Amino acid sequence: MKKLIKGFLCCIICFSLFGCKDITKKIEGEVAYLVYYQSEYGENYHEAVSNALSSYMENHEQSYVEYQLTDTSTQTFVKTVELAMHKGSNVFIVPYSFFNALIEVHENYPDVQFVLLDSSIGDEYLENVDNILSISFNTYEMGYLAGSLIPFENYRKVGFLQSIHNQLEENYIQGIIDGLNDSAKMLEDQAGSTSEVKINFTIYDIADQKVDKRKETIAEGYQKNVDVFLYMDSSLFDLLDEYTDKSGYRFVGYCANDRESENVLFYSKLNYSMLLENLLDRMINDEELDHNLVFGMKDGAHTIEYLPNTIHKATERQLITLTSKINEGQLELSAKEVSNKPNHVNVVHQENR
Questions:
Q1: Among residues 98, 77, 81, which one has the least CA distance to residue 31?
Q2: Three-class SS of residue 1?
Q3: Measured in Å, how far apart are the chain's first and last C-alpha atoms?
Q4: CB count, 10 Å around CB of 163?
Q5: How many Å separate Cα 233 from the centre of its chain?
Q6: What string of H, E and C letters represents the secondary structure of 237-260?
Q7: Which of 109, 106, 110 is nearest to 74 (CA)?
Q8: pTM
């Protein structure tokens, strides 16, 4: 199987990230990881987190305990937390699926440190979350990079399969739109005033659709409105791969593991090892931390990767340029960014049917 290209085109990890680290330092207390496999992120997501956590703990000669929950109810959450505490755990890695339960009961456990994965804590909760840290990927940055590359592949009809409906997905979508817009303007400027570059971006809300209906939506989208799809829900990879394998269309991958397909234009690849390392190293060193921590390409938390000969040379040059600017601190991409950009993107919301 062909291997993904990354290296100099992706995040250049400095020696300082890996060298001269004191791995004799340990996390104070026992770590527990709570898992609900039926969440919107799916089994592949939890496998990536488990592997990352296992690797980190082994390097520090510690262990952790994984608890598989049957649902995300507050009752089940409380029962599991108290069982784990009874067995000695005082640091909990908690996926986004348990957000509501965590916010409801965390004050009952002041001596426990909760780490909320793939989420952020809203302003309305920040006054009372002394024992919660949230960590997430810079999904706006990821979306911007993906959106910036697509126009260089000569795609002008882009689709997004929306299914998670959280802030991270919203940030990803906004990043895609801004990236599409900036690259469309760049290509238009390069071509001269006689050439207008406009991109249609269609958002399909499939949150309540069953698998068969999602397949229909993907097929209808490609046949009528879309040349390339993006998504965030890892369960959609197989559905898109199945359809594009037969039809010749492409899609942009979003994943945390080494799933590869020649139908993928390029991948927004998540690195949970680096995400957790960025946080846990700071905890070990007893650094003062914000409640909402966001890590991006410069931190090694995500990359853009692709199979050989799947993208154009112009796309590669754009990726190299953006990657260099991010790693050198010349380009900072944040979801809080407010821009007055010219509108080269027509955004359409396709209602759920």
A1: 81
A2: coil
A3: 39
A4: 19
A5: 9
A6: HHHHHHHHHHHCCEEEEEECCCCC
A7: 106
A8: 0.89
